[in-house]
Write a structure and sequence with these properties.
By secondary structure, this protein is α/β, with parallel strands linked by helices. Helices cover 45% and strands 13% of the residues.
Length: 223
């Protein structure tokens, strides 16, 4: 599973199996998960290792469609941000146990598309992976449920209706424009001449004000 692969040919009418990267703290867990996922004909699992930084270099060697990440929230968010710089097409999906509201905000800003509960069955995991790969908007998945609860409890802007970019500050609108170009936090920071941590804070505020669960949803908003 660790050998270098040539990029796969893609077309609208024909696809080779989806390549699923797996990142986690336990080698046994990753290998077991890769074995089960590999039994699904639509998937080709790749063991990427334990996380940042070695897994990032491995991710560059593969044409990844999705990366399943089982790390603690801070490590998972850091890895997702680095992953999207190294492999912008890869869709990050997290395996999650307990999560605080702050963790949720960080997951959303770090580019996670979905969060799968640790107690989910294998069949539920496969449904989540397929839904993510098909870019389905599942309003009942964990990230959206948590995001809705977070917005109700923490965001005064979310109490109104029809939130638009006009509710953003001038700097937030600049960051939003660069997000629509699929720039990473580091790239946005370089473009604007500010710190990456400052960009991360702006992204949090943008997602909260616009009432969207993750930075991926920014790309779906009308220009």
């Amino acid at each position: 599973m660790g050998s270098r692969r040539k990029p796969r040919a893609r077309s609208a009418g024909l696809r080779s199996p989806f390549v699923i990267g797996i990142v986690g703290r336990s080698s046994f867990y990753r290998q077991s998960l890769a074995h089960r996922i590999g039994q699904v004909s639509a998937f080709l699992p790749i063991d990427l290792g334990t996380g940042y930084p070695n897994s990032i270099s491995r991710a560059r060697d593969h044409d990844l469609d999705l990366v399943l990440i089982d790390l603690s929230p801070p490590d998972a968010c850091r890895f997702s941000e680095e992953l999207l710089e190294a492999a912008p097409r890869a869709r990050p999906v997290g395996i999650l146990g307990e999560c605080t509201e702050t963790d949720l905000e960080d997951f959303a800003a770090a580019g996670f598309m979905r969060l799968v509960p640790i107690e989910a069955s294998f069949e539920e995991l496969i449904r989540e992976l397929m839904g993510t790969l098909r870019d389905e908007t599942d309003r009942d998945h964990r990230l959206e449920r948590l995001a809705q609860g977070y917005r109700r409890q923490r965001s005064p802007e979310a109490s109104g209706s029809g939130a638009t970019a006009s509710s953003l500050s001038r700097r937030e609108r600049q960051v939003l424009q660069l997000m629509t170009r699929q720039l990473s936090n580091k790239e946005i920071a370089s473009e604007l001449g500010i710190e990456a941590g400052t960009v991360k804070n702006h992204v949090h505020h943008i997602l909260r004000k616009l009432q969207i669960p993750s930075r991926w949803e920014v790309l779906k908003r009308p220009k």
